[in-house]
DNA sequence: GATTAGTTACTGTGATCACGATTAGGGACT
DNA sequence: AGTCCCTAATCGTGATCACAGTAACTAATC
């Protein structure tokens, strides 16, 4: 499973590629973030600095700094020997994260609904239409990607440099687990939250938008908690072996 | 301004110092965090990798990783040329941070009051007594340190790996500005919030504790916002530079 | 055949260097 | 005296290396 993304696929032994500024580290970081959100790495996966570097076609330095940033954002956790891995969320930790997500994303939703223009209504509808189509095709990877896009379209509208990093960190933390759980068979996605959200933004009703977001996240949380208790043996919450990179 | 702390002051050219594991980076990071919270660096201060390294008696590597982590936590911000500096908070940014602090720390306070044992009452009283003493002596550095200890005693009691990193990040972001503002002459510290908090924990009343915390943070916010408008010319709120991503 | 000891490969860490870009400073010319 | 250009110092970045600790694997011994 080489090459996480389409990062400059040249051989490491080639001559100096034209790099203007620190694009390398940014690309590596973006790649890793995307991979985490998309469920490329399972919870518990341990990263190897040199292997990751060579698989990305770069040296260890940019990977070191990227992993360091993800550790600082608690998207990855540090092992006693200094290695980093994708955290295995306990049921308690998962519940905590969603508790905070409820509060923070509710605030962001209210602010967004208070300040944003009407163009967001169309954006949200388009995203949700695509989501429903992917849901019908049972393409859960795409469903999760579009769900993320739906939520972040709202949060970006809040235009807060304080809220956004917190929300991103929370999503990075529960992303791997979410991906894992929503790939299970008995998965029925409830779209009522998204509908209520669109209605609230159409009517520019911040209170309604806020409670709709609380409802939407609450449903996701309940599903995940339920899955956690089902998959307690083989799921990402138990001891699962490492996955080759 | 050499030597932030008492970090291994040996000459870099000496023989191998006995280092068991990655204590160096941890010490550097702890030093920088402490310095930020204590107001050693003013908002706008630009860091130089090599100078910081030599002033700390180490090489560039541990400093690089520490600064990187602080950037990831938004405690420092990245300039277009890759240098990092202490952010100059705009009045809007400061207001946002305190808005989130109100929500997050209120939750942490409620959880703490619900779960923690009675020993916290004594701890809080001791800290607040020392705070009042330092206040009488007009030792504002000590007051700020004890205020931080008071708050974090509560937050640590909530025992959450989700809330604590968020709270720490928020304090790191507004720390330099707080230190700067509270060193001003016309500063009267209102201790009523701390008193109400202690009462609430004594009676184990989570709701009262939560609203007392909201009150306490709100008072600090109002004072800071007021200071911001006073010092609009020369203070840390002056012409806010671009905010790099 | 099971256990233990020894060796080998691999881990992150810290230090150092080359590179390109940016910046500040000084000198010369108008 | 003011302005402009050139140079030198400094910046972060990416690559590479030595080191110490650890984990795993192999081989020898009981």
UniProtKB/TrEMBL annotation, chains A, B:
<feature type="domain" description="HTH gntR-type">
    <location>
        <begin position="22"/>
        <end position="89"/>
    </location>
</feature>
<dbReference type="Pfam" id="PF00392">
    <property type="entry name" value="GntR"/>
</dbReference>
<keyword id="KW-0804">Transcription</keyword>
<dbReference type="InterPro" id="IPR011711">
    <property type="entry name" value="GntR_C"/>
</dbReference>
<dbReference type="Pfam" id="PF07729">
    <property type="entry name" value="FCD"/>
</dbReference>
<protein>
    <submittedName>
        <fullName>Transcriptional regulator, GntR family</fullName>
    </submittedName>
</protein>
<keyword id="KW-0805">Transcription regulation</keyword>
<dbReference type="InterPro" id="IPR008920">
    <property type="entry name" value="TF_FadR/GntR_C"/>
</dbReference>
<feature type="region of interest" description="Disordered">
    <location>
        <begin position="1"/>
        <end position="22"/>
    </location>
</feature>
<dbReference type="InterPro" id="IPR036390">
    <property type="entry name" value="WH_DNA-bd_sf"/>
</dbReference>
<keyword id="KW-0238">DNA-binding</keyword>
<dbReference type="InterPro" id="IPR000524">
    <property type="entry name" value="Tscrpt_reg_HTH_GntR"/>
</dbReference>
<dbReference type="GO" id="GO:0003700">
    <property type="term" value="F:DNA-binding transcription factor activity"/>
</dbReference>
<dbReference type="GO" id="GO:0003677">
    <property type="term" value="F:DNA binding"/>
</dbReference>
<dbReference type="InterPro" id="IPR036388">
    <property type="entry name" value="WH-like_DNA-bd_sf"/>
</dbReference>
